[in-house]
C-alpha cells in the first residue's frame, strides 16, 4: 500500500514537474470561444458613421462591410469578397487542417457550452469532461433543466444571428410588434429550433454527416498540413496502415508486437475524451474536428511518465523528419499571394465606392428629328438614387460631347435621403456630328451625374449612346422645308 502511494506520489510529482507551465489546448480554445462569442454578440451593436461591421439588410437593400455602407446595386465588390472568403478557407485548411472546426465553429462552441459547461460543470449530469463517451442517463429533472437553459441560449443565439440581417436598433422595435414582422420572428424560431435539435440530438453527427466543409477539407491537405496526429513511431502501431484492422488490444499485445519501446500505455484516455467518438491512434479521420482534447489527455498521461505527448498538433512530414512543421511552403505562399491580391482588389473596389446611383436606359425610339431637320433628340430614362443620409440636389452633364445638350430636365432636382427617382431625359444636338449617308450612327457618350451641393464627392460617370440619323434623311428634311 505504502509502495503504491509512493509510486502514485512520484508519478504525480513527475507529472507536475513535467507539465510545469503547460497550458492545455482546451484552455486556449476556451479563450478563443469567449472572444468569438463576445465579438459576435457585441459587433452588431457597434456603428461607425451609421454603418455596421457586417450587415446584409434586405429591408433597406443594403450591405454593410467593415463599417461602410453599400447599396445592393453596388455589389461589384462581391466577387472579390467571395474570392477572398474561399481563398481564406483554402489557405487556413492547407495550413492548419480543420482548425476552424475545433477553434471557431459555432457548432463546436455550442456543444462545449451545452455538454461541458451546462451538463457537466453546472449540473453535474455528466461525470467529467474527460469522458465524452457516456451519455447522461436518469437524473431527469437536471437533464430537463439543462435542456431548458439551452433552449433560452438557442433563442439568444438565433436573435444574434438575425442581428446580421436586421440591425439591433430595428430588431428591438420590430420585436414589439411580432404580428407585423412574421418573417423575422419565423426566422428566429426556425434557427432556435434547429440549434436545439442540432446541439441536443444531432450533436457531433452534424460535423460528421451534415457539414459540407468536413467532406471537402481533406482534399486541401498536404504532407505539411497541421493536424492532430498520433505518433506511431513512438507509440507503436495500434491499427493497420489502412486503418481497417485493430492490431493490438492491450499493453501486453502491444509490447509483444512492437517491443517494449512502444510508449503508448493503451490507457485510452484519448478515446474517452473524444467528442466525435473516434480513436486518433487509427490515423487521420474525417470525423476528427481538431479539438485537440486527445492531445491534452495524452499530455497528462505521458507527462506522468516524464515524456512528451504521443498525440500532437503537427504535420506528418514533421513527425517523419523529427522537426517542426513548415508553415512557409509553395502552397501556403501561393495562397498568401492570391489572398493579398484579392485583398488589394477588395480595397481598390472599396475605394471606388460611389455615393449615388444612376442607371441609364434608352427608350425604344432611336431618335427624333425636329426643327425642320436641324435638331436631333434622343430620349432616355435615368434612375437616380440618393444613397446618402441627407437630401441632395442632383443634375448631370454630357462630358464627352459638348455639342450634345440637355433639353429635359431643365434644372437640378431634389432627392431625399435614400430616395430613388425615375427621370425622363432628353438630349439633343443642333450640330451635324456625323455625316454618314449609309446608316444611323450610335455615338458613345459619357454622362456625369452629380449632387450639385457636393460635386466633388458625390458624382458618377456612366456610358451610353446618342443615335445620330443617316445624314441624307436630315438633308431631305431640310430640302423639303426650304421649298
Ligand atoms: S481525435 Fe477526437 S479528441 Fe482528438 S482532435 Fe480529433 S475530434 Fe478531437
Ligand atoms: S492517451 Fe496517449 S498513452 Fe493513452 S492510449 Fe491515447 S495515445 Fe496511448
The helicity comes to 40-55%
The number of distinct β-strands equals: 16
Mean pLDDT over the residues: 90
Tell me about the biggest sheet?
5 strands, antiparallel
Shape: elongated
Radius of gyration from the CA trace? 34 Å
* Strand-residue proportion: 15-25%
* Number of discrete helical segments: 17
Sum this structure up briefly:
Helix content is 42%, strand content 19%.
Looking at this protein, list some descriptive labels:
binds iron/sulfur cluster, 483 residues, 4-stranded antiparallel sheet, 19% strand, elongated, single chain, 5-stranded antiparallel sheet, Immunoglobulin-like, 17 helices, alpha+beta
Notes on the protein architecture:
The structure is a single chain. This protein has helices at residues 2-18, 25-42, 78-96, 99-103, 106-122, 140-162, 168-174, 182-202, 205-210, 212-216, 232-235, 251-258, 269-272, 293-303, 316-320, 330-351, 471-482, and strands at residues 47-48, 51-52, 54-57, 62-65, 68-71, 227-230, 311-314, 356-362, 368-370, 375-386, 392-398, 405-408, 413-415, 420-429, 441-451, 459-468. The chain starts with a helix and ends with a helix. The protein is an alpha+beta fold and 483 residues long. The longest helix has 23 residues, at 140-162. Among the domains are: 23-81 and 91-207, no CATH class; 356-482, Sandwich (Immunoglobulin-like), CATH 2.60.40. It has 17 helices and 16 strands. The mean pLDDT is 90. It is elongated, with a radius of gyration of 34 Å. The chain binds iron/sulfur cluster (2 copies). The site of one iron/sulfur cluster has 15 residues, from helix 13 and helix 14.
Amino acid at each position: 500500500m505504502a509502495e503504491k502511494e509512493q509510486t502514485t506520489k512520484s508519478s504525480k510529482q513527475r507529472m507536475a514537474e513535467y507539465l510545469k507551465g503547460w497550458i492545455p489546448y482546451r484552455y486556449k480554445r476556451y479563450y478563443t470561444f469567449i472572444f468569438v462569442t463576445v465579438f459576435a454578440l457585441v459587433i452588431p451593436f457597434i456603428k461607425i458613421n451609421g454603418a455596421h461591421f457586417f450587415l446584409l439588410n434586405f429591408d433597406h437593400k443594403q450591405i454593410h462591410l467593415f463599417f461602410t455602407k453599400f447599396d445592393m446595386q453596388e455589389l461589384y465588390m462581391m466577387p472579390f469578397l467571395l474570392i477572398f472568403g474561399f481563398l481564406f478557407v483554402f489557405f487556413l485548411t492547407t495550413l492548419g487542417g480543420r482548425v476552424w472546426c475545433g477553434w471557431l465553429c459555432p457548432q463546436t462552441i455550442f456543444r462545449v457550452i451545452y455538454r461541458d459547461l451546462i451538463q457537466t460543470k453546472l449540473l453535474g449530469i455528466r461525470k467529467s469532461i474527460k469522458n465524452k463517451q457516456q451519455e447522461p442517463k436518469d437524473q431527469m429533472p437536471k437533464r430537463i433543466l439543462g435542456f431548458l437553459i439551452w433552449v433560452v441560449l438557442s433563442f439568444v443565439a438565433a436573435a444574434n444571428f438575425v442581428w446580421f440581417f436586421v440591425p439591433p436598433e430595428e430588431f428591438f422595435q420590430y420585436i414589439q410588434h411580432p404580428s407585423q414582422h412574421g418573417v423575422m420572428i419565423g426566422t428566429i424560431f426556425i434557427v432556435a429550433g434547429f440549434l436545439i435539435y442540432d446541439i441536443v440530438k444531432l450533436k457531433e453527427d452534424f460535423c460528421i454527416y451534415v457539414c459540407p466543409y468536413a467532406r471537402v477539407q481533406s482534399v486541401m491537405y498536404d504532407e505539411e498540413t497541421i493536424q492532430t496526429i498520433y505518433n506511431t513511431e513512438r507509440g507503436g502501431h495500434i491499427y493497420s496502415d489502412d486503418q481497417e484492422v485493430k492490431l493490438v488490444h492491450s499493453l501486453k499485445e502491444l509490447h509483444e508486437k512492437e517491443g517494449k519501446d512502444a510508449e503508448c500505455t493503451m490507457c485510452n484516455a484519448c478515446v474517452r475524451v473524444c467528442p466525435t467518438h473516434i480513436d486518433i491512434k487509427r490515423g487521420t479521420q474525417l470525423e476528427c474536428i481538431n479539438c485537440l482534447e486527445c492531445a491534452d489527455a495524452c499530455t497528462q498521461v505521458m507527462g506522468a511518465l516524464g515524456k512528451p505527448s504521443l498525440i500532437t498538433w503537427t504535420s506528418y512530414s514533421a513527425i517523419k523528419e523529427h522537426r517542426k512543421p513548415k508553415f512557409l511552403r509553395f502552397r501556403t505562399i501561393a495562397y498568401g499571394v492570391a489572398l493579398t491580391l484579392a485583398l488589394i482588389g477588395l480595397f481598390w473596389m472599396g475605394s471606388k465606392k460611389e455615393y449615388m446611383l444612376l442607371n441609364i436606359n434608352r427608350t425604344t425610339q432611336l431618335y427624333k428629328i425636329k426643327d425642320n431637320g436641324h435638331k436631333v433628340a434622343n430620349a432616355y430614362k435615368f434612375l437616380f438614387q440618393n444613397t446618402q443620409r441627407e437630401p441632395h440636389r442632383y443634375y448631370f452633364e454630357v462630358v464627352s460631347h459638348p455639342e450634345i445638350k440637355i433639353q429635359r430636365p431643365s434644372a437640378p432636382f431634389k432627392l431625399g435621403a435614400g430616395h430613388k427617382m425615375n427621370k425622363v431625359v432628353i438630349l439633343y444636338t443642333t450640330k451635324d456630328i456625323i455625316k454618314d449617308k449609309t446608316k444611323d450612327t450610335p455615338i458613345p457618350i459619357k454622362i456625369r451625374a452629380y449632387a450639385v451641393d457636393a460635386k466633388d464627392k458625390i458624382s458618377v460617370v456612366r456610358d451610353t449612346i446618342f443615335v445620330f440619323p443617316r445624314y441624307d434623311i436630315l438633308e431631305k428634311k431640310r430640302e423639303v422645308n426650304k421649298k
